[in-house]
Amino acid sequence: MSNLEDRPDEVRAGRAASASERRRDPAADGTGVDVLAPREVPLGGPRAMTVRRTLPSRERSLIGAWCFLDHYGPDDVAETGGMSVAPHPHTGLQTASWLFTGEIEHRDSAGHHAVVRPGELNLMTAGHGISHTEVSTAETTVLHGAQLWIALPEDARDGAPGFAHHVPEPVTGPGWTARVFLGSLLGSTSPVATATPLLGAELLLEAGASLELDLDAAFEHGVLVDRGEVVVAGERVARHELAYLAPGTGSTVLEVEADARLLVLGGPPFGEPIVMWWNFVGRTHEEVVGFREEWQAQLGEGEGELADGRFGVPVGNEMAPIPAPALPNARLRERR
What we know:
This is Pirin family protein. Belongs to the pirin family. By secondary structure, the protein is mostly beta strands. Helices cover 7% and strands 42% of the residues.
């Protein structure tokens, strides 16, 4: 998914967050759980979708290599028009699409054409550069899901673009069901290869359930609550909030009173500073400026036409490409 903001935020890691964005300091209260509230971000025009963004925030930029988390819906397509995202570029990252409700048709410049469906992972690798489109299908009445970005490390960020599709088999236990789409959890392992170790899973918990998760202590983890309310290691996390667990957490207990749905994300601390702006992940201000210039050059002087170049042209596309917004009047800062 594109970041369709006209003025993409520049978030500097390490700055103190506001009370509305961060309501718990794990070091201060001893719980080991940091709870981040989302901020609402409107995408596009007046009828467009609004997403809830928890990564990046002023307080935290990444969880492992996960560098962007937009959570949206349930969105009534009759009111918003659904998703209709024209050609836009990416570089230096992967996009992970995970739906709860609805369908989205994906087309990219590496020749991939696929439909994103609930319970199925679509993982697009931008690498050196890719462009793609995303359009909700005519059968979709409600859109509900999450769009996640993964920063690629130095040795992979300039590689060839690619695409992976995976349908994880659900695993179950007393009062819970899990679908592990990246990494390993609860005895299930995804076959999808990643450039850095990662965890991505959907958990469904029935009312009154208690589940102990054995976690990799080398990872930091995030627990996003889509539905219900969850107690994570004794800390109550409300709907749409993101609970953060620092490295060193070998296990945690999840408890719910009513039915709940969660996303669990994780990975070892990324260890590389990144510069992230609009739809690009780079390492320096100058590099991102260059990405933007190369995309704008592909737009050329034509009426809604996209020329070939670094980011290619999505297969079967008939929509005019999205121009890059203006850069801020300041250097883009690193996120760590």
